[in-house]
Amino acid sequence: MNLTTAPSAVDPAVDFPELAPHARTTVRLHPRRGTPGPRDSHLGGPLWWPAAEPWPECTGHKDVNGRPEGPYPLVAVAQFTAADFPGIRFPAGTDLVQLLWCPDWHDQPHPEGWGQACRLFWRRAADVTDPLTRQPDPEDHWAYDEDMVPRACLLHPERLTEYPWHEELPAGLAERFEAWLDERGLSDDVSVIPGWKLGGSMGWGVTDMPRRLDCGACGAPLELFLQCDTCEYQPGPFGPEGLPHRFRPLEERHLEPHTSQEEAAREPTGMTVGRGGHAGLYTCSADPRHPASLFTQ
Ligand SMILES: [Zn+2]
Ligand SMILES: [Zn+2]
């Protein structure tokens, strides 16, 4: 199955050249519920995990009387292979990355981070010769559709060009672009693309962008690794301007809005990120093995 984003109403490379040099590539993941295997790229499925390596746990829980609770096994959130995602900057000798988190909110390595405590594991798939077959069941401690536990999804990656959040652009440029769009009655459908995606730029409409976005271990700039989103596109067949919504995949426009099938396409993981927004997992641009921070919007 291919899932395709509609063309944008405006192409800055042609129509607004001042913005063009700021173009970035992002990869929309287009997660859709399915049954991934342990070697596949996926969200919420089984990981290609060595049986001899202890499953990571969260020890940061206490009951109402302050007594330690748990530890609870971390939840498998995502797995990406280099074969499927050559754009990921894998550290030398690795070709598999796995994201696990505790569904509760915890402190982050970056002081302005807010959200789930994330762990990334970078591996060489061929090193896992004896994979773990029985993995912890998130439902022992958590509930799908209530907690931050993703339903198992297959991925249908699509590379797109997008433009950064306005606070990342040189002073005045975002305002000039906005005015140019206003004059023509267009809306911005090229910046900070919604939905689950790898790389690119995230919207910071809730908190504003932190003034410094640096790695706590080495000081190098952080960069967006993965955006997690409640919705892949806005509900209804039309966007806020009454135009067909660009981010509703062309192949799914026949789905009747607000049916269970359409809702599963729009909110495939069943997770409500923050208050129905999105979050970005930021990694160190010098070494993605340095502790990563989640920023929830
Ligand atoms: Zn925890
Ligand atoms: Zn670093």
From TrEMBL:
Gene3D superfamilies: YwqG-like. Residues 1-45 are annotated as: Disordered. It comes from the Bacteria. This is DUF1963 domain-containing protein. It comes from Streptomyces actinomycinicus.
